[in-house]
Amino acid sequence: MLISYNKIWKDKVQSPWAVMKVEDSPNYLGSKDIIELQNGKDVSQKIQMVSENLTGVAIKFANVDKKATGIIEIELLDPNSKLVERWKLDCAILQTDGYCNVQLKKDIKVKVGEKYELIIRPRLQDGKGLALELSRPSVITGHANVKGEKNISLSLAYKLYDGDGSALKYLIVAIIITALVAMLGSFLMMKKGKIASTFVVMTFFIGCIYIFVLPPFAVPDESAHFVTVYSKSNKLLGKEVADKEGKVIADSNMGLYFIREEYPTKESYIRFVKGALGKNSDTITTKEGLANPLNVKAIGYIPQIIGVSIARILGGSGEQILLIGRLFALLWYCFVMYFAIRIFPFNKMIIFAVGLLPMTIQQVCSFSYDSILLGLCFFLISYILWLIYTKESVEIKDVLILVCAISGIVMIKYIYIPIIGLLLFVPKQKFNFRVNRKKIALYMFGMLSIVEIVSKVTLITEAAEKNMQIRSDGLYKYSIGYIMSNLGDTLVVVVRTIFEKLSFFVESMIANPLGWVDIQVPNIIVMGFAIVLIFSAIPNHISKKTTKKLMIMSGVIVILVSGLVLAAMLISYTYVGSDIILGVQGRYFLPVLPLILLIIQGSKNIVVKDSIETELILAITGLQLYTIWSIVSVVITR
């Protein structure tokens, strides 16, 4: 760590902090737009301030010709059009595409919402050789203008600087202290033999680190999930939910939504460290519409809604609202997993290891509904197995708990409903009341199916169309009618997907890649966790073992869920003509990973003499700390 700090962190701590970066995310699938610089055609744009200080700016150049000669003049004007500073850049220093930083001789005080003007005057000797990169604008960015031409609907790609990266020191100190507390707490719980408590301690503190090292909006679709949570919070607090366009109305402290980084950099770390300490100012001064919320029921976001609402009532900053919302998602997950591990009748390390995979922690520490979904799926599996192997009798309250868990899962993601197939193995003599297990399972499946079909009638109607539907990009998407008419070709696509992407599914289910599929961690981490998963499933001589029938049912459930995942992505995401099913990621299979390990656990060929729980917990701790350091090392160098 010290070596890495000396080589990387020292420079990053001393480098300027971009309080705002206007640039299309690497996740943006559109083509990059540019403005070719030409003599006599000055480029200008109004730049809105988002902090109380300005120490410099940066402009992103493109199509740089190394042979280009001449001068680029950059002027910064205040709101009264008075010159703040002028810079003259020799084209010789612009060797590659990217940002060119210019610092103010003296830092200036600015006000949030003030609009300064940036002017770029090209003075190229051969009249060409440089361009400026453009970006999609937001409500707080202006539009670029070219002298003598019509206004452009896009913004310049630029940065605004406010100080340096010294806040990164706090992040490193916090990570080290939290990691030490996690290890100490876990050690104390292990000595007492409390596996469930050990899991809670490890998950909470490691999760707190993840909340910062994978900052808000760095997890897939988190911006959409946050907007949805905020809309539910508005409703809970009795505030106006959306504007005429359906966009969720947010207070001024959520202006950072418009300068979010889905591709995290050191700037993301600095912003959220400072924000957590209450040192950031709002980035806008008025209420604004964020975006349209997802059509997802509130049950998938209950912890986040509560956390966000409490933070808003207490007057938290935008960063604090985001962090507290994430923290409540983590707390819920710790709560439900405590009981899932306690009642799990087999080797408890199965649930322990799956629940602490890097991909699992990434998802449950975000605004995604996966905190509820994964927690409920793991709990449901544990609860049903507990009824089968441990509890002497099934009572009405057990049925109510099952109904609540199953209903929650179905209302979030219907594709995991096959898990209820485990109910068929609850011995009928355990019921204290007259009941037909098969009828209950069928009735429950039928009732939930009807509810889900009614709630998604539009989507199902589109999927059932015989004629192919056209996507927004002009490509045709799959429908059930098309699949039935071209069953052979569709099966080829499914089989090809499995063979070509199986390795990716396994890796991305465990740890690689994280974030928006952009943070690569070392393969040794994936291998290490894979080994831990396998050993967690190996029973010792006193462990209970699954029956052959239960192993078969577990396999059937895994196949059914996997099939539903592929089918859902085929219809909702894949275009006709694609070689494989698009959009499928390993994390979609996490809810049934314990069942895969149960199949391994049922093997009678391999048994360990003594418990290896302590060794596995130490291995998980070490691998998680290595993962955290790998994430930070990737993000900090961007």
From TrEMBL:
Protein origin, superkingdom: Bacteria
The UniProt record lists the keyword Transmembrane: yes
Keywords of this entry: Membrane, Transmembrane, Transmembrane helix
Transmembrane feature ranges: 167-188, 195-213, 298-315, 327-347, 367-388, 400-425, 440-459, 480-499, 519-538, 550-576, 588-607, 616-636
Classification via Pfam families: DUF2142
Protein name, as recorded: DUF2142 domain-containing protein
Species annotation: Dorea longicatena DSM 13814
